[in-house]
Each structure stands twice: as C-alpha cells, then as structure tokens.
Specification:
alpha+beta; 5 strands
Length: 110
C-alpha cells in the first residue's frame, strides 16, 4: 500500500478549495482517504482577501512522511512554504547522523 499526500477538490463550481489528505495512491482523486492534514484555498477567502490561504498541520504531515508517504508535486510546494519539508529533512539528517555515529562506535568496539 503506497500512501500519497495529495489534494482533494472541494468547493463550488469555479471556486475550488482543496483538502490536503493522506490517501492510498490507487484511490480516486476525490475518493476515500486516510486522514486530512490540511486545507488549501488558491483563490483566497473573498474578493477583499485574494491571497491564497494554506493551513497545514505539520505534526500530522511529519508523521506521514516518516511512515513513507510521498507528497505530490503541488503538495510538496505547499509543504515547503509551511516549513514541513525542511523539518522532515532536518529530522532525517539527524537520524542518519545518529546511525553513522552508532556504526562507528560499534566498529571501534570490535
């Protein structure tokens, strides 16, 4: 089972909003998903506020990334702006440094 972090389209005609979800890669775009990890509104909240609105729960995203979920291209860009990918890369580098230190200590003990 391959899990992807991807967008599910919601909203009215010509006014899309998206949920960022963790879903199996074989499911339909707007099909069943495992968990909602955020929302994305590319058109903003209103005419007065045309800025895009992105709300992402970085803790949930990090949990899914550590479990092996792959973000789609668009979701990866959104995660970059929220800082979740940088947090994941830092944690991944820290884990690899710990593993290499443990290997070196084990090798020195022999």
């Amino acid at each position: 089972m391959t899990v992807k972090l991807r967008l599910v389209r919601m909203g009215k005609k010509k006014q899309p909003t998206y949920r960022i979800v963790a879903a199996e890669s074989r499911r339909a775009r707007s099909g069943a998903f495992l968990e909602i990890v955020g929302t994305y509104q590319p058109r903003g909240l209103s005419v007065a506020e045309p800025e895009t609105v992105t709300k992402i729960d970085n803790d949930k995203v990090l949990r899914w990334l550590h479990q092996g979920a792959q973000p789609t291209e668009r979701v990866a860009k959104l995660l970059k702006t929220s800082g979740a990918l940088e947090m994941f890369d830092a944690a991944k580098a820290e884990m690899s440094a710990e593993k290499s230190a443990a290997k070196a200590a084990a090798k020195a003990a022999k």
